Amino acid sequence: MSNVDEPLVLRNDSEGISTLTLNRPGALNALSPLLFEELRSHLTDINESPSEVGVVVLTGKGKSFSAGNDLKAIERGERASSPHQQAETLDFMEEMRQPVIASVRGHCYTGALELVLACDLLICSTDAKFCDTHGKWGMVPTWGMTSRLPERIGPIAARDLMYSGRVVDGAEATLIGLANRHVVDADLEMSTNEWAAQIAANSWHTLREEKIQMRELARFEREEGLKWARENGPGAAPDMLDRIQRGFQR
C-alpha cells in the first residue's frame, strides 16, 4: 500500500457493487507502481469476498480515467514491486470471479487503455479519448495490449490504433467494439451505476460461471469447448427455484 495519507485507489461498496476509483486527479490518474499495488490489494480482497461483492466498477476521479503509465515515475526511477507487477494485475482482474465494468471519461491512454481492455465491459462518455501512444514514446506494450486489443476490436482496427496512435472518441469506440456504449458525460456515473445494478441483480453464481466458461472455452477448439462446458459446469445456483418462483409472482 501507499505510505501517503490519501489512498491512490478509493473503494466504495454498496448493494453488492464495489467501485474502485483511481485517485490521482492532479496527475490525470497516471498509473504509478504504488497505485498498482493498491489496486491489486483491493482486487485480491474483492475476489476473496464472492458472497459480498458481485460486480466491480473501475473508474477515475476527476476529468480523466487515466492518462496512462506515469512517465514521471519512470523518469524518477520508481520501480514496480515485482518485474511484471502491472501485467500480472491486469491478468488477475481478467480472471477474478466478479465481472468488472470500466467507466471512462476523458483520457484513457496507453497503459490505461491496456487496463480497461482487461475489464469485462466498458461504458464511456461521448467525449472520452482513447489512444495508444506506445509508438510516440518508443515503448513496446508488455501488459497485454497486443493480445487484448485485437481480441476486442479485430486485428485490422487494432493495427490502426496501435500503428497510428490516433485518438478515438467515445462514439467511435462504441462503433468499433472497444466500448459497449457511450453516454453524455453528465450521465456517465448514473448510467454506470444503473448498468452495474442491473447485472448485480442477476445470480452471482451464474455471472461467475459465465465469466469462467468464456475464458476457458477460448482455449479450446469449438467442439471440444462445447463438450467441456457440458461436462464441467457446476449446475444451477442454490437459489434458482426461489428466483423462478419470484419471477412467476411478478
Characterization of this structure:
The strands form 2 sheets. The chain has a 6-stranded mixed β-sheet, with helices on both faces. 46% of the residues lie in helices and 16% in strands. The protein has 2 domains: 9-200, Alpha-Beta Complex (2-enoyl-CoA Hydratase, Chain A, domain 1); 204-249. By secondary structure, the chain is α/β, with parallel strands linked by helices. The protein starts with 8 loop residues before the first strand and ends with a helix. The longest helix is centred in the N-terminal third of the chain and has 15 residues, at 33-47. Strand 1 (9-14) and strand 2 form a beta hairpin.
Strand percentage lies at: 15-25%
Structural class: alpha/beta
The sequence of SSEs as H and E is EEHEHHEEHEEHHHEHEHHHH
- In percent, how helical is the residue content? 40-55%
- In whole angstroms, the N-to-C terminal distance is 47 Å
What is the CATH architecture annotation of the largest domain?
Alpha-Beta Complex
Quote the CATH topology of the largest domain. 2-enoyl-CoA Hydratase, Chain A, domain 1
The chain-level mean pLDDT equals 92
- Identify the quaternary structure here: single chain
Task: List low-confidence stretches.
Answer: none
Strand order of the biggest β-sheet: 1-2-3-4-6-9
Number of domains: 2
* Overall shape: globular
Give the helix tally.
12
Q: CATH homologous superfamily of the largest domain, by name?
A: 2-enoyl-CoA Hydratase, Chain A, domain 1
What does the main sheet amount to? 6 strands, mixed
Number of distinct beta strands: 9
> Over all CA atoms, what is the radius of gyration?
19 Å
CATH class of the largest domain: Alpha Beta
